[in-house]
Each structure stands twice: as C-alpha cells, then as structure tokens.
Amino acid sequence: MNKAAKYLYPLLACLLVSCGSEEGGDGTEADSAPPRVALVMKSLANEFFVNMAAGAEAHQAAHSEAYQLIVNGIRNESDLAQQVALVDQMISSGVDAIVIAPADSRALVPALSRAIAAGIVVINIDNRLEPEVLAEYELQIPFIGPSNRDGARMVGDYALRGLPGDSKVAILEGITSAFNSIQRRTGFEEAVAAAGMEVVTLQSGEWDQTRAAQITSAILSQYPELDVILAANDNMALGAASAVGMASREVVIAGFDNISAIHPLLQSGAVVATADQFGDQLAVFGIEYALEILATGIIPQDRQTPLELVTPETLQAN
What we know:
single chain; alpha/beta; Rossmann fold; 2 domains; 12 helices; 12 strands
C-alpha cells in the first residue's frame, strides 16, 4: 500500500457506512439520488491534472452508489475567468459539493463564496486559497494537500547536494499569485541558502512547458555559467531540459509533480529529481472530505497529504 492509499481507505470505509445508513423520519432514504460532486481543476493540458481526473473517475466508478461526479478543467493554468465561470456553472446546476484546485489563491474566493451562500460544500485541494482572503469573506474552506514548501526544499536539497558552494541557481516559479507556487519557490530558496549558493534569477514560467523553454533559453544566454535550474513543476522542467539540450549545456535540473513525461529524463540524467504528491489521489481526498461534510454537517480540519522524493534510483527501484 502506498503512502497516499494509507490516508484514503479508512476514511472511505467510514463514509460509505455513514452515507449508506442515513434515513428520513418515515424510514425511507432522506434523498434517493446520491450527491453530485463537481471537480474543478486547472489545465487539462497538464498531465498532473489529467491524472487527477482519472483518479477521481476511477474512485467514483468503484463507488457509484455513494456519489455522482462532474469533472471540469480549464484550457490553461492562467485562465482564471474560465475557472470562475465553471464555478458559477456548477452553482447554477445545483451540485451538492465543489472540490477545487484553484488557478489563483485569491481570485477564486468570491466565486466560492457564492457557492457556499448557495448551500454548496466547498473543498480546496492542490493550491491553498489565501487565508487572509478567506477571512475577509468569513469563509471556512478546508484544504487538503501536501506541504509544497517542504516538498520543494526536499527536491532542492537533493539537487544541490555535492555541488560547489559557488554554484549559480535559477528558479522557475509558477503563477506568482498562486499559493503553491509561492511555497515551492520558498522551499527552493531555502535549499539554495542552506547550500550557501546564489539564486541568480527567479522567473515565472507560468507552469507552462513552452514558456519555460523560452525563458530558459534567455537565462542560458544571460548566465553562461549557470549550474542549476529548479523548476516548480515538471512541465517547466521539461521545457528547461529542452532548452538546455538545444544549447548543449550541462545544467542540473529538478522539477515537481512526478508526471510520467518526466521519467525518461530522470532515467537519462537530464533531470535529477522531482516530488510525487500523489496527484491521482488528491481529488479523491477532496471528494471524501466533501462526502463527510454532506453526511455529518461538520467541517473537518485541513489535512496534509504525503510527498515522496523521486530520483533516478527510486524510479528504477519501483
């Protein structure tokens, strides 16, 4: 059993019992139709969210008596307007719960406030909503996900080990206003500081492979002695690796997410490490929290989910 599954199955058993036993006062089921849960994700061009959707769909297929699932995603990571529109569509369609991986930690809060006002349960996964903005709207939305800061620090520590203290490092962050991007950037910065090295440039690749390749090409020209690129997701690590290869340079590259597309680069040594946050299970954790609230009316606490360092060695061992 992997680390993610260890968190999952005890809660699932409890939920199925509580959901299946709820009856109305006349001895009939309180509601003949299972609850409708909407999963609202970021870009489905990103393999991480494709895997997340697949994990949710597999879980629902195995427990179709417990809930119905509606899966939504946006065209690209920065399309905030489309994600807000998806939330409003889910409100209009009368779903019972929304499980959301927000593209922005602030901009989605007003739409989610409308959902809660309509009586919809909201669960936040993957990218934490900004606590200050939630407090401003007087909202309590539970977050389920890993410590992105700890994960990035773990990846950074591994990527930088054994390198000279004067090594020069570039960081490719995601969307600058996203909480998980900020946390990953911070974790990378902590790893660089602990190694006594220098971050020569910090730039946003907006989570996008093509954008990251373009930025990396410019960075390589500007910093001919660059030693390391720490990318806040694997899509950007793929873009960085492409640019490094085109420039025939030797640069240590690390990513985050453990998508399958990064595995050949890990095996070849073009990328040295990534972090697995069990993306295929994140939506499942959120769905189960939503079902728990629907069954009990009690809003649970935030839950930190596991992370695992993935390197060429661990990939080969698995």
